[in-house]
C-alpha cells in the first residue's frame, strides 16, 4: 500500500522541495497553496515526472480556519496521510511596537493557527492507527530574536513550543513529532538580495533532512533539526 504525505504551502521553496523528495520515493501527495495557477502547474509536473503517484493539489488560504476545515475534509475523503508537514508561513517585516495594524493577527493565523487546526484534523485518526509523523517548519527566528521581524519570531517561538507539547502528548501513541528549524534558505523570498547564493541553505537540503528524519526505525525519533548556512546566520 502506498504511503502519503501532506505538505502545506507546497508550490515553492521548502514545501516544494519536500514534495519532490517524497514523490521520488513513491509517496502520494496532498498539498495546498493560495495560488491556484501554481498548484495546477505543480500537479502537472508531479504527474509527468512521477506517474505512479496520486496528487491532490487544492487552493486554500490556511490563515482562515474554515478553509483549513475544507482542505482537511478533502484530504480525508481520500485517506489519512502518513506524514504531515505544517509548512505554510508568511513573513512581514516590522517591529512589534509599530508594525501595521493586522500584521500580528495575520501572521499568527497563517504561521501558527493553521498548523494547530490542521494537526487537530488528523491526529485522532493517527492515534487510532498508532502511526504517523508530524513535522513543523519553524525557523532560527524561533530560537533567536531578530530586529524588524518581531511578530514572525513570536509565531516561530510559539510553533516550537506547540511542537514540543505535541511530542510529549503523542509519543505514547507511536506518533513521531519533529521540529525543523532552518536558517536563511534560498527561496523566492530572497531573490534579488545582493548576497551570493552560497551564503544560503538549499531548500533541497532541508527536504533531505526531513526525509532522513522520517526514514528511521520505529523506535527512534529526531525531535529537532537546526539547519544553518555553513558560514553562519545572515
Automatic annotation (TrEMBL):
Keywords from the UniProt entry: Oxidoreductase
Domain of life: Bacteria
Pfam families attached to this UniProt entry: adh_short (PF00106)
InterPro entries: NAD(P)-bd_dom_sf, Sc_DH/Rdtase_CS, SDR_fam
The keyword Phosphoprotein appears for this protein: no
Molecular-function annotations in GO: oxidoreductase activity
Family statement: Belongs to the short-chain dehydrogenases/reductases (SDR) family.
Name of this chain's protein: Short-chain dehydrogenase
Organism: Algoriphagus alkaliphilus
Taxonomic classification: Bacteria, Pseudomonadati, Bacteroidota, Cytophagia, Cytophagales
Amino acid at each position: 500500500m502506498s504511503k502519503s504525505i501532506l505538505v502545506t504551502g507546497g508550490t515553492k521553496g521548502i514545501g516544494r522541495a519536500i514534495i519532490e523528495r517524497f514523490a521520488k520515493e513513491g509517496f502520494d501527495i496532498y498539498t495546498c497553496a493560495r495560488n491556484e495557477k501554481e498548484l495546477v502547474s505543480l500537479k502537472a509536473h508531479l504527474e509527468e515526472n512521477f506517474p505512479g503517484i496520486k496528487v491532490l493539489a487544492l487552493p486554500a488560504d490556511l490563515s482562515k480556519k474554515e478553509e483549513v476545515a475544507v482542505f482537511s475534509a478533502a484530504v480525508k475523503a481520500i485517506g489519512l496521510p502518513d506524514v504531515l508537514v505544517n509548512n505554510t508561513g508568511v513573513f512581514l517585516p516590522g517591529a512589534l511596537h509599530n508594525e501595521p495594524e493586522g500584521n500580528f493577527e495575520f501572521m499568527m493565523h497563517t504561521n501558527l493557527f493553521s498548523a494547530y487546526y490542521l494537526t487537530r484534523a488528523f491526529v485522532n485518526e493517527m492515534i487510532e492507527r498508532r502511526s504517523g509523523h508530524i513535522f513543523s517548519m519553524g525557523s532560527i527566528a524561533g530560537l533567536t530574536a531578530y530586529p524588524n521581524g518581531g511578530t514572525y519570531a513570536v509565531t516561530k517561538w510559539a510553533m516550537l513550543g506547540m511542537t514540543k507539547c505535541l511530542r510529549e502528548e503523542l509519543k505514547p501513541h507511536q506518533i513521531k513529532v519533529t521540529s525543523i528549524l532552518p536558517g536563511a534558505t534560498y527561496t523566492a523570498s530572497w531573490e534579488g538580495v545582493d548576497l551570493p547564493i552560497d551564503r544560503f541553505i538549499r531548500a533541497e537540503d532541508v527536504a533531505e533532512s526531513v526525509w532522513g528524519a522520517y526514514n528511521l526505525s520505529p523506535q527512534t525519533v529526531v525531535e529537532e533539526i537546526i539547519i544553518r548556512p555553513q558560514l553562519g546566520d545572515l
